[in-house]
Specification:
The protein is mainly beta. It has 5 domains: 79 residues, Immunoglobulins (Immunoglobulin-like, Sandwich), CATH 2.60.40.10; 79 residues, Immunoglobulin-like (Sandwich), CATH 2.60.40; 73 residues, Immunoglobulins (Immunoglobulin-like), CATH 2.60.40.10; 77 residues, Immunoglobulins (Immunoglobulin-like, Sandwich), CATH 2.60.40.10; 99 residues, Sandwich (Immunoglobulin-like), CATH 2.60.40.10. The chain has 1 helix and 40 strands. Strand 17 and strand 18 form a beta hairpin. The protein is rod-shaped.
Length: 471
């Protein structure tokens, strides 16, 4: 009896010890080894869109995970180690709640753990052109910014707060564009693109060149710059005839030819393109002299070219059917007459001009007496000069022997003036005619006729053609 009870007590005591040990273990777990929530993220800051790898650091067994990436109370993932992309700027608080065996275990909250900045960027169209240049800017920033500050001319002043503005660049140069964007939680970013916009001057100019009247060398032309873009430097090229750096230039073209005048204006270190051009045609001006311009045949005349514009060829027409291509020819006139002389000169680019001088050369017979035979007697006359400028006073000298009282002299001076008759002075049987003057008032060649008359049937008339020359 005694041994049996002893065995039963020992068995009861062992079972109790096991139960107490289990109770102790449960209490230990409940008191100090409950589930914990923890995590990390990489990266925690950057430009939108920002993709973050979250890594669970929680403890416990049989856990489930409830991630809230933006603290809005909505579960965004149940993965243990999720990836999440933040598309909008801002400071993000991240929550992780873990359950152990389906029972709430713990929550970890990290305030403003993820910081996402906007990434400023833009495009502009066009990026190069002539002033005034109207450029449309388009915001291409990431992170959904809600505020924009544009600076177009590097002066520290905000020029626009629009998201997609237009801006007109009126002054030539290269422009760096600055854009600052801001998003949620005052997150911001700035980009600056150096020399993004190139604005060229628009080359243009005016001049006082005209083709009427003919533009002869030397030709002075005034050129005035009318380029846009407020240029500060100018490069004139006068078609190989010189250059100039001034804004409004005057140039004298001394040589005949066709000149392509060009202007390139520069502003802010930017040259306008293409150059503004104008064709300037400069003609040679034909001019000449001849010495002498009158005389008796054969008359040798030396012609001198006095043309301007540096002609390269000459064509003379002497008016008697002969020509010359010399610059300064000498010509012999072998016949009496009035000759019109012309000179055609040709310069560079086949530009030419002709000078014609009508009735320029007068060629006459030598001064000689005009003889008339009356009843076997000889009478004649001469003129003191055969050529001169109008009004021309010519004196005719008769050289007769003594004339009978019935004899008369009748003069026809060839210019349409009335005939002049001289008879025997009253009471004279024989007489000697005196010299007679006549004034020629117009240019021309004049034939002189003398008629010596002794009776109605006894007379003689003689004419010398082109005897007097009036220039």
């Amino acid at each position: 009896m005694s041994e049996h009870h002893t065995y039963r007590d020992r068995k009861r005591t062992g079972c109790l010890k096991v139960i107490l040990a289990l109770i102790a273990l449960f209490c230990t777990i409940s008191a100090g080894q409950a589930a914990t929530a923890d995590f990390s993220g990489t990266p925690t800051s950057g430009f939108a869109p920002l993709t973050v790898q979250f890594t669970d650091g929680s403890t416990g067994t049989n856990l489930t995970w409830y991630w809230d990436f933006n603290n809005d109370g909505v579960v965004d993932s149940n993965q243990q180690n999720p990836l999440h992309t933040y598309n909008s700027t801002g400071n993000y608080t991240v929550n992780l709640t873990v359950y152990e065996n389906g029972v709430f275990g713990a929550t970890e909250t990290k305030i403003n753990y993820i910081q996402v900045d906007p990434l400023a960027s833009f495009t502009g169209t066009p990026t190069i052109g002539n002033a005034p240049l109207n450029v449309h800017f388009t915001d291409t920033s990431t992170g959904f910014p809600n505020n924009w500050s544009w600076e177009f001319n590097e002066d520290g002043v905000v020029d626009s707060n629009l998201q997609n503005p237009n801006y007109v660049f009126t002054i030539a140069g290269r422009y760096s564009i600055n854009l600052t964007v801001r998003g949620n939680d005052f997150r911001q970013n700035t980009t600056n693109v150096t020399d993004y916009i190139t604005v060229r001057p628009l080359n243009s100019f005016t001049s006082n060149y005209t083709t009427v009247p003919t533009p002869y060398a030397p030709l002075a032309v005034q050129f005035n710059d009318t380029s846009t873009g407020s240029p500060t430097a100018w490069f004139w090229d006068f078609g190989g005839d010189g250059t100039s750096p001034v804004q409004n230039a005057t140039h004298v073209f001394n040589t005949a030819g066709i000149y392509s005048v060009s202007l390139v204006a520069q502003g802010g270190g930017v040259n306008g393109t293409p150059p503004a051009t104008q064709a300037i045609s400069v003609y040679p001006k034909a001019e000449f002299t001849g010495t002498p311009q009158s005389g008796v045949y054969p008359l040798t005349v030396a012609f001198t070219d006095q043309s301007t514009g540096s002609p390269v060829s000459w064509l003379w027409d002497f008016g008697d059917g002969t020509t010359s291509t010399l610059q300064n020819p000498t010509h012999i006139y072998s016949s009496i007459g009035v000759y019109t002389v012309s000179l055609t000169v040709t310069g560079a680019d086949s530009l030419s001009d002709t000078e014609t001088k009508t009735g320029y050369i007068f060629v006459n017979t030598p001064a000689r007496p005009l003889r008339a035979n009356i009843n076997g007697r000889t009478t004649f006359f001469s003129v003191d000069r055969i050529a001169g400028s109008s009004p021309f006073n010519a004196t005719f000298y008769p050289y007769p022997v003594r004339l009978q009282k019935e004899t008369t002299y009748t003069w026809d001076f060839g210019d349409g003036s009335p005939l002049v008759s001289v008879g025997t002075p009253p009471g004279t049987w024989y007489w000697v005619p005196a010299p007679i003057n006549h004034v020629y008032s117009a240019k021309g060649l004049y034939s002189v006729t003398l008629t010596v008359k002794n009776s109605p049937t006894d007379y003689y008339s003689i004419t010398i053609p082109n005897y007097v020359v009036v220039r």
